[in-house]
Amino acid sequence: MITTQVDRLGWLRGAIQDGSIHTVRASFADRLGHWRGKRVPADYFLTHADQELGFCDGMLVCDVRCDIIEETPYSNYGTGYPDFHVRFDLARLRPVGWITGEAYVFGDPYDHDGRPSPVSPRHVLRRVLDRLSTVGIRARVGLRLGGRFMRDPYHAALIPAGGLGPGDDEVGALSRIGAGLRASEIPVVVVATGPEAGAFRLTLANDEPMASAEAGVVAKAAAKEIARQSGVTASFMTLQRGAVAPSLLEPTVDLELTGSVQPTAMAIQRRLAEVRALLQPSVNAFKAGPPSAPIIRPFGRSLALSGVSASSEADPFTVIAAELAAFAVSIDSANEPAGSLADGQGLGAAAEQLARTTWVAEWLGPEFIANALPLLAREDRLLQSSVTDWEIDRYWGTA
Amino acid sequence: MNRSRWTDLVWVDLLGRPRVVRVPSEIASAEAGLEVSKHHVVGGYDNGAPPSGLVRLVPDASTERRVAWDPDRSIVMTDLKEEDGSPSPLCSRSTLRSVLEVAGQMGYDVFAAAELEFFLLTPETGEPIYRDIQQYSIIKGTELEPVLGAVRNSLRQMNIPVEASNPEYSGGQVEVNIEYGPALAAADRATLMRSLVRVLARKAGMGVTFMAKPWTDEAGNGMHVHQSLWREGRNAFSQNGSLSQLARHYAAGLLSRIREYALLGSPTPNAYHRRSDHTFAPTRVCWGTDNRTLAVRAITDHPNSTRLEQRDAAADCNVYLALAGQIAAGLEGVRDRREPPAQAIGDAYAREDLPELPRTFLSAYDLLDGSGAARAALGGETVSSYLGILGREREVQLRTASEWERARYLSSV
């Protein structure tokens, strides 16, 4: 496997020469794990790979519909929406396995004054990993990611209720997702269908946390782009019309510990409840219910942590960062009695809980939280001020 | 490389739209050049009274490009000459060239890039091909690759060095970035790009518009002009990691003429609908560091790429005249060692103390009409001809009852 920056650029040079690559997706992930960037001609990228690429910094703190708001202190009309600059992680340059001719690379956003952008989930995860290493904890993370193929917002597509049987043909979309991701060197180990119509699940093997988070972003994009080729939509919205089971993002974590104190599952669950607004960042995601208690399996000085469920629409970098931080904080509070779970009535209450939770700002960064809060609260307000289909169905003509 | 059989000789009319005559390549290279009627050079959005006489198309051989999708055809930019061999005042390319000669006499090369936004349309409806905002979205970009991939690859084959493309901040709106280069080449590239994008979009079953403000509630299409002065191969706008004194003089020049020259970058009544608060199109005369609410934005991230970006022009302008006006203004600031006002910080839309940019076509027209500086920098006949065709636009606008007026007043008064 190619692992160094020099090797990767050499690979790109060869791929340009043999005509197999013409474009590089020069990219970053936003706060919701959406894959953003510019498409750059590969030969131009090769000669400018050590340079930064500028983007409007509003796109690091926009909402799910790309709306920008004045309440985010990091970026608003008062700050003038300056550029942030992405420095690319060239050692992770690789092919887009499901489309011919393209490669991709992610990078780290830096402010216009050169500091790591505190609202970039990639920096947030790195911050958490750095802090974990100082207390002797190393993590490897895998992901299970659920989604749905939809013909339109009301009807599932490709996969029948009950899932696929042996030899069933779902026009090859699932196979192409699996093959495409593996061609992008993403360690997909299972591509499966769920029991409900349209439902599918991708399982990615454990890897370095940064690589896994990036793989989660790419996996969602691959599913969406390949579904589009089949004339349908792949959606990671948590609960869809008519669905019973939510689409979840479930990290599986292996932790190497140097200390002997291990937190209880209940202690971790309590911490996760405090950051629920990051794990379930939409009003729809909240309908999936609160995060469950993790399953902890010790192996000597290591332990495996699974069963924690975020919503599929959440950003993988943020989810992994929040779960690892929750674990570390729970070590210190392992002997504390388990209190009642933060039982927010909705996203707005969860955002208020997040604002009250001091450890999360310490671990993930105060600016990250300060910019997430107004977006989360606004999402809740938007729902409160919307007349929903349910209200029309229930009250129109009878009230 | 074998020569192509046919050559498109290209000039732009005063509105910046490329015009073409296609000739056998051996004729295209004839020194005497072809003659065309001035009627085709002036342009205009409708048929006004055509000027009489002829101009000669003189090919600029350094601009020859083989058409990426038709190896039998080349494109060459031309300069327009009068019968006595002098540059025609109707030739926007020559106007820009003359401003660049002034820069050369002052010891500077001018580098620029014109950054253009445009909408991809569904041809049958004329509506954007999608409605939700998807700025920088990689996944949305994948859907646009039949056009944008072809644009990047074809234009690079044609020596138009595209460096990136991405969805922009409005549904269906995109941006294609071209590397900075000598200012005349930058204007050629932007002008050709506007034209070539149309062809490639049509091949992919899509339409295109560079119209400044096609929809009231959507972002407009801007042309941001990035510019810097270079001396002896070094960027003279950069000094010790920040903006040089020379760049400050240049910024002062840009700001001092930005109101008078607004019509050069925004040549339609529609373009002034783009100028509204909190839309990322500037509305106030101001400058500062890396702030998208300002009219002139200083960008200082790297010595070689330190530059000033003037953000007020519309994507449907005459690129040559817009650049000529901006560069002439900047050079004027350098020549007179002008000092710019204090840099604006924060939300410039909220700064009611700052002078406003022209908010209507009529006010911009009157400002250019009254500008002695424009006539001195760009040529009296050039400015008069430009005002002449836009004067008709002014008349038409004044006497046109719009859909908006009918919707608002018809049944209410």
Task: Please provide a brief summary of the model.
Chain A has 399 residues and is an alpha+beta fold.
Topology:
The complex is a heterodimer of chains A (399) and B (413).
Chain A: H1 5-17, E1 21-29, E2 35-41, H2 42-48, E3 53-56, E4 83-88, E5 94-95, E6 101-110, H3 121-134, E7 138-152, E8 155-156, H4 173-183, E9 188-193, E10 199-207, H5 209-229, E11 233-235, E12 248-256, H6 265-274, H7 276-279, E13 295-299, E14 302-306, E15 310-311, H8 316-332, H9 347-356, H10 358-364, H11 366-384, H12 389-395
Helix pairs in contact in A: 3-8, 4-5, 5-8, 6-8, 8-10, 9-11, 10-11
Chain B: E1 6-12, E2 18-24, H1 25-28, E3 34-37, H2 39-42, E4 54-59, E5 65-67, E6 70-81, H3 92-105, E7 109-122, E8 127-128, H4 138-157, E9 162-167, E10 173-178, E11 181-182, H5 183-203, E12 207-209, E13 222-231, E14 234-235, E15 238-239, E16 242-243, H6 245-257, H7 262-265, E17 287-289, E18 296-299, E19 307-314, H8 319-335, H9 361-369, H10 372-378, H11 380-399, H12 403-409
Parallel strand pairs in B: 1-6, 17-18
Antiparallel strand pairs in B: 1-2, 3-4, 4-6, 5-6, 7-8, 7-10, 7-11, 7-12, 7-13, 9-10, 13-14, 13-19, 15-16, 18-19
Helix pairs in contact in B: 3-5, 3-8, 4-5, 6-8, 9-11, 10-11
Explain this structure.
The complex is a heterodimer of chains A (399) and B (413). Chain A is 35% helix and 24% strand. Chain A is an alpha+beta fold and 399 residues long. Chain A folds into 2 domains: 109 residues, Ubiquitin-like (UB roll) (Roll), CATH 3.10.20.70; 260 residues, Glutamine synthetase/guanido kinase, catalytic domain (Creatine Kinase, Chain A, domain 2, 2-Layer Sandwich), CATH 3.30.590.10. In chain A, strands 7, 8, 9, 10, 11, 12, 13, 14 and 15 form a 9-stranded antiparallel β-sheet that branches. By secondary structure, chain B is α+β, with helices and mostly antiparallel strands. Chain B folds into 2 domains: 84 residues, Ubiquitin-like (UB roll), CATH 3.10.20.70; 308 residues, Glutamine synthetase/guanido kinase, catalytic domain (Creatine Kinase, Chain A, domain 2, 2-Layer Sandwich), CATH 3.30.590.10. In chain B, the strands form 3 sheets. In chain B, strands 7, 8, 9, 10, 11, 12, 13, 14, 17, 18 and 19 form an 11-stranded mixed β-sheet that branches. In chain B, helix 10 packs across helix 11. The radius of gyration of chain B is 21 Å and the shape is globular. The interface between A and B is large, with 44 and 44 residues.
